Amino acid sequence: MENSPMKAHHSLAAVIALLVVAGCGGEDDTAHSAQGSTTASPTASSSARPEESTPDELAAAAATSAVIGMLGVTDAAKGDPATRDWEPEVRRFAGDPAALLAVTAVRDYATLGLRQEGETLVDLEVTSVDLVAPDGATVRITGCYDSQSTRVVRQDTGEVISPGTPPRYVWDITVVRYDAEPGSPWLVTQLTPLTDQPC
Questions:
Q1: β-strands 138-146, 114-118: how paired?
Q2: How confident is the model over 135-148, as a mean pLDDT?
Q3: What CA–CA distance (Å, rounded) separates 92 from 182?
Q4: CB contact burial 24-47 (16+ within 10 A = b; e otherwise)
Q5: Of 83, 101, 116, 187, which has the fewest CB atoms closer than 10 Å, so is most exposed?
Q6: Whole-model pTM above 0.70?
Q7: What is the DSSP letter of 90?
Q8: CA distance readout (Å), 43 to 28, 59, 163, 173, 192
Q9: Are 107 and 91 in contact (CB under 8 A)?
Q10: What is the C-alpha to C-alpha distance for residues 146 and 35, in angstroms, rounded to an integer?
């Protein structure tokens, strides 16, 4: 999720590129809204009854839900960034460093007078599940992000800011179960845009 501006006149575009992907770090209605615009592979599906699902399938479904929840919250936050502190809602679905980057992106939107229009559209595919990983049960997910599903505009003028990224590119996502936390939540810890990898 690291993306730094190269020159002064490119800095806003670079910041926008970072902000667009940083939220890919809620309330139940925003999470539901994001789910409507996000698809997941059968391996991440929760269509099977829990008693018929394997531990890996349950982990994949929980991790995918965390990603969808995070996207829903960050979409809502970037759509109205200055109304409140969005950090508690972001942290319901994300842990650091992803949470910090997402919260910083939302605050930068507010500072720069920007807002997002549209909802994040990403196809998710679970690529690996490791229930005995040293840092906690871990699920790796590859996302194909459609950068045209949202746009960033200036609050005061409505001017659309060019994202400076390809139309579709890969996200590398890591979700970890935090067993030390109440309820052992699955939290997105990494959401890395691979803008040089089209999908």
A1: unpaired
A2: 96
A3: 12
A4: bbbeeebbebbbebbebeebbeee
A5: 83
A6: yes
A7: H
A8: 24, 10, 31, 15, 21
A9: no
A10: 15
